[in-house]
Design brief:
Layout: E1 2-6, E2 12-19, E3 26-29, E4 36-41, H1 46-55, H2 57-66, E5 78-81, E6 84-90, E7 97-99, E8 102-105, H3 112-139, E9 145-149, E10 156-158, E11 163-167, H4 175-187, H5 196-205, H6 210-219
């Protein structure tokens, strides 16, 4: 992949991506991180791609301007946890804990982000471990282990050897959404596809899964608005 620069103001970096399946130029602005990608057929000339991108320059600028800025982290800021809005609050505590509508953190502003991420990852692992264990028992198919990542392209995955991977940001979503994703990936232990048989397994493990699935499609990108430390 190559990058080109659209003249500003503001200047915009565009990543060129060639695809054997592409039949035309396609310009995309990621709602997650604002990255601009231009997909073009393998046979297309780079000069044509540049001309196409320049022709769409105004659209790209407008799309970037509409993006919400990253949510700041610090005492007084808010974060969602299991669908609830909590205020990050300094308190004389040794470890993060929730009291009412506040997420209490030790009073060190320099470590708010690090402590917050550690807490969210811990809670995500506990909730996902419980959900996957429950669904796997109902299915009669064990998984081997759970891995958490901060993925942007998918909320979960299931490997052929039974390893399950999830985005720990699922802890920000309502509990039924996390439970649906857990059921979805556990269902792949029996059906490594998205056939009608697979969706029948999901429906058995998670009745009414359509509502949390729709929530994730509509609101999932908002869970990436927070810029947590690595």
């Amino acid at each position: 992949m190559r990058r080109l620069l659209l003249p500003g103001p503001p200047e915009v970096h565009v990543t060129l991506r060639r695809s054997a399946r592409a039949r035309r130029f396609s310009l995309r602005v990621s709602r997650t991180d604002g990255q601009v990608t231009l997909t073009l057929p393998r046979w297309a000339a780079e000069a044509e791609a540049l001309a196409f991108a320049r022709d769409k320059g105004a659209w790209v600028t407008e799309a970037l301007a509409r993006m919400a800025p990253p949510a700041p982290l610090g005492f007084g800021a808010t974060v969602t946890f299991e669908g609830r809005i909590l205020v990050l609050s300094a308190a004389p505590v040794r470890a993060p804990r929730i009291e009412g509508d506040a997420l209490l953190l030790p009073p060190d502003p320099a470590r708010v982000g690090v402590r917050l991420v550690a807490f969210l990852r811990l809670m995500a692992r506990q909730r996902l471990q419980e959900a996957c264990t429950r669904h796997a028992a109902a299915l009669g198919r064990p998984f081997t282990r759970i891995t958490l990542r901060d993925t942007r392209s998918r909320w979960g995955s299931c490997a052929a050897d039974g390893r399950l991977m999830f985005s720990w940001r699922l802890i920000l979503a309502p509990p039924e959404v996390l439970d649906y994703v857990a059921a979805h990936e556990v269902a792949h232990l029996a059906e490594m596809n998205h056939s009608p048989a697979f969706w029948a397994v999901v429906a058995r493990l998670c009745p009414g899964y359509a509502a949390p699935r729709a929530w994730l499609k509509q609101h999932g990108q908002a869970l990436h608005a927070y810029r947590f430390p690595d």
